[in-house]
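for the recovery benchmark. tokens below, seq after
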């Protein structure tokens, strides 16, 4: 009985930590509240490509496009620079970023998607293949987005995308 309880506890904790954004070992919730002074993406072209892919799909579904939110973008860029610099995804600071958006941008629900090693198109396709990510990206209530892109020392891409809806 003790072994079953331990296994169930481990499964619960694992599913809780990764429920909102993980489809494999390269996509997970992550965060750090350090280095929020970054205001430009390492590669804004890739961030623009991700936004374009999302909004093209939203338009094909007759949905309003997502709009860049400066606070979400700043938080995403700050976080992705830390994860790329550390060469690992983590969940550190996720709650602080969500709280900042709730306090400064009237955010009701905040979702953070993080990934590494993909091109923007590969990343978008992975999201569309994942039912929970697809539901978020094509959700009618999600209208604000911030995208951060950075590379580690080997030139591998890291992405942080913060999406939220405002309180009514």
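predicted aa per position
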């Amino acid at each position: 009985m003790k072994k079953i309880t331990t296994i169930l506890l481990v499964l619960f904790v694992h599913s809780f930590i990764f429920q909102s954004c993980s489809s494999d070992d390269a996509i997970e919730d992550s965060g750090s509240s350090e280095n929020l002074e970054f205001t430009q993406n390492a590669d804004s072209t890739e961030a623009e490509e991700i936004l374009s892919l999302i909004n093209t799909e939203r338009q094909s579904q007759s949905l309003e496009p997502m709009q860049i939110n400066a606070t979400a973008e700043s938080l995403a860029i700050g976080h992705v620079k830390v994860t790329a610099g550390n060469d690992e995804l983590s969940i550190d600071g996720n709650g602080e970023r969500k709280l900042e958006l709730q306090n400064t941008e009237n955010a009701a629900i905040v979702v953070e998607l993080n990934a590494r090693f993909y091109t923007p198109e590969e990343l978008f396709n992975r999201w569309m293949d994942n039912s929970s990510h697809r539901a978020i990206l094509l959700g009618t209530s999600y209208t604000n987005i911030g995208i951060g892109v950075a590379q580690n020392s080997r030139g591998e891409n890291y992405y942080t995308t913060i999406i939220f809806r405002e309180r009514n």
